[in-house]
Amino acid sequence: MGIADTFAIIENVAELLRLGDAYQPPRGMTQRQTQEVRQLLEGAADKVDGVGPLFDRHLLFRLSKILPGGRYPTPRHIVSMIFRIAEVEPSHRLCDLACGSGGFLVCRGITDGNVERTVGVEISPEWVRIARTNAYLHDVQARVEAGNALYVCGPKGELDGETFDRILLNPPFGEKLDAGLAKEVVGWNVGSRSETVFAALALSRLADGGRAAVLVPSGVLSGTGAGERELRRRLVEEHDVEAVVSLPKDAFQPFSSLQTHLLLVRKRTQSQDARTWFLQVESDGYPSGRGRDLTIDPPSFGDLPLIERVLTVRDEEVEESLPEDSPRLGIRWMSLGDGNVRGAVVQAVGANVISSAERFPAVGDEAAFVLLTVESMFGQGGDLFYVKVSLDGGTAEPLEEDPQQLIQRLYKPKSTDPNPGTSLFFKRADPVRAVAFTTGGRALGVAIPSSSTGPPQHELRPSRFVGGEEETHHAGSPTQLLSDIYKNQRLLVRHVDNLLGRLELRPIAGQEGPAPLLGDAVPFGRLSPGQEAVWRRVRDRFENLGDEGQEKAALFTLEEVDGVEPATVASDITRLTVGLLERMGIVMPVTVTDPSTGNSAAFYRLVTEKDLWLLPPKEDPLGEEGVSEQGNT
Fold first, then answer.
1. Alpha-carbon gap, residue 388 to 374, rounded angstroms
2. Cα–Cα–Cα angle for 563, 566, 571, nearest 5°?
3. Each residue of 308-322: pLDDT tens digit?
4. Residues 6+ positions from 444 with CB-CB distance below 8 Å
5. Which secondary structure element, helix H or strand E, spans residue 377, and what is its range?
């Protein structure tokens, strides 16, 4: 089924839901059949609270599995979480600069007829129609502009000069945009990466005091490109970065496994000592992998409600202070209304900071607890204050004894294992203003002064400020350590040899050069003109190394051999032709992983003679040497 057929199904169902008896069925479908389908849809709508949720939470997420091109609706549990964290009020002007199916637009539910209060922009005509239909079925009056967001927001565009109180955005990742146009619209050189350009565009369209919540890949938080570095500098120095939230790697499954982060930013109206939360979500409530069903609510309790609680409860709502007469810490318990304490936010009061947080396991009658070290921001470390936060009943108390005495009394550690079973949340020289953790003893994140995220790179990765829990244990004897190093070194050498045997390399240090490319004759019958055009573009994807005419197979994507410039979604003929070439052993898929981020990208390349392998010779019953056979992997 092609993309046109998929969108036709969506639009026909939407029209049937909207028009009812007035709907004119397509050719080949009788009125009786139409009536039966409508009754089924209406029955389904009654079970999910209306035609709007049926369309937005069920139909879109069923048909999106067959939408080619990598476009998909943002999972609605992510949409709802972002909407609540951004604290969108009915009076706010809301905008989504890449609105897709309109998930952020319909989340607010405004029905007062003011279309200027809810605005979306979408470049795809098909998705524009879906967004408008989605808004209609939710009784949301929204203005959805069709076109490139840079043109729509640029000089003489429909949104030229307009600003918004809230901008919620899940932009396309990995696309190339017009860098010159982006610089003209944004006002500075932001580069051409779509995720960076859209984040900068959102900042440029914020009203004073407005908030932007933008989903971005890891490269925006730590990439070394000029556009990414300048974006982070402007974020830190000209705005208040309220939070950076790392979502689980599977948060966008079954559509994407790319690590995604949420940036929550406020446009600064005056100089102030703001703080930034760096949070890491371990679970969003759905099972990991591609088998998750996004048409239902999360089946288990994940971290997202706790993250919402951390970011939406004001400082003045602190429920407990330690000590009461001269508080140095404030504690806010998170029960989420079910009566069960599920986590805590502990924040320093006044000029105090939290210098470390360490979890200790349960032992005997003693429940597991978190031990916090508090000190003055301006002190020399001599005036320390310790707080013990119990993880079973939501209690906290100042520690009356020295921490080492407590550890000795409870755990009786040996000299070879001084900290049995403990987990260090963090221990930093930089000041930490607050820490959040679950009653299960898992760190959610820390809040630090925004000024601490400064130069040289203004890196905004949450893992830089709070990493995973590291179990402390005895390192072992020097002999054991050297033995482990030796074993790992031998394993590394074997891996390197294996990789060198698979890669096509320029001749270095006496190594063999790249294997010859296979001939350009296609080993199957006649091709259609479209297939021949794709094959010619695939055959041209090689690099001439200049060494006696040697050629190296170059990596390429489907979009690069599509023949349409610029290409963002490969056509059906390109996908089918490359798939056919792969099955015939002419091209092979290649996955490239960035070791610094763990992000992977899919490519293809031409098969070379080095990709062929030899079967062992067959044994001749007469004892003579057999003949080798060749086959490709």
1. 11
2. 50
3. 999 988 766 677 888
4. 279, 280, 303, 306, 307, 310, 343, 436, 437, 438
5. none
- How many Cα neighbours within 13 Å face the side chain of 182? 21
Strands 206-217 and 164-169 come out as parallel
Angle at 292 between CA 287 and CA 297, to 5 degrees: 85
- pLDDT for the residue numbered 549: 57
Distance CA 603, CA 414 (A): 53
Task: Quote the CA–CA distance of 116 and 93 in Å, as a whole number.
Answer: 7
Residue entry with tokens 């690590």: 259
pLDDT of residue 66: 46
Are 122 and 100 in contact, with CB atoms under 8 Å apart?
Answer: yes
Spatial neighbors of 261 by CB under 8 A, at least 6 apart, are 215, 216, 217, 218, 220, 221, 244, 245, 246, 247, 462
Residue ranges of E strands in 468-611: 470-471, 542-544, 551-553, 587-593, 600-606
User: In this structure, what token pair is assigned to residue 369?
Assistant: 């607890």
CA dist 459 and 64 (Å) reads 35
**Single-letter amino acid, residue 480:** Q
User: In angstroms, rounded to a whole number, what is the distance separating the alpha carbons of residues 309 and 328?
Assistant: 22
| Cα 31 to Cα 541: distance, rounded to the nearest angstrom | 53
Residue 606 CA, chain-centre distance (Å), reads 31
DSSP assigned state of 54: I
In angstroms, rounded to a whole number, what is the distance separating the alpha carbons of residues 147 and 400?
Answer: 65
The first and second tokens of residue 620, run together, are 């001749």
Q: Compute CA 105 distance to the chain's CA centroid, rounded to the nearest angstrom.
A: 21
Handedness of CA 62, 64, 65, 67 (dihedral sign): positive
- Work out the number of other CB atoms within 10 angstroms of the CB of residue 141: 17
Nearest alpha-carbon partner for 267 in 234, 244, 226: 234
199 phi, psi to nearest 5 deg: -65, -45
Alpha carbons 406 and 427: distance in angstroms, whole number: 19
**Cα–Cα distances in angstroms (integers) from residue 116 to residues 94, 120, 141, 148, 198, in the given order:** 9, 10, 9, 19, 21
Q: Could you list the mean pLDDT of each consecutive 10-residue stretch along the chain, which spans 633 residues?
A: 54 68 71 76 82 87 57 92 95 95 90 83 90 90 95 94 96 92 95 96 96 96 91 92 94 88 91 84 91 89 93 77 87 83 90 89 90 81 84 86 88 70 70 90 89 74 68 57 82 74 53 55 69 86 64 83 66 86 85 70 82 54 38 31
Question: What are 331-334's contacts with CB under 8 Å, separation 24+?
Answer: 331/389, 331/396, 333/394, 334/306, 334/309, 334/310
Q: How many residues does the chain have?
A: 633
Residue with tokens 């549990």: 77
Could you identify the residue written with the tokens 């079967």? 615
Which residue is associated with the tokens 């010159």? 180
* Contact present, 225 and 161 (Cβ < 8 Å): no
Tokens 């703001």 belong to which residue?
Answer: 274
Q: Two tokens at 420?
A: 């049995």
Give the chain's radius of gyration (CA, Å): 29
Q: How far apart are CA 394 and CA 369, in angstroms?
A: 10
User: What integer pLDDT is reported at residue 323 of this predicted model?
Assistant: 86
Rounded to whole angstroms, the Cα distance separating 104 from 250 reads 20
Round to whole Å and give the CA distance between 346 and 356: 12
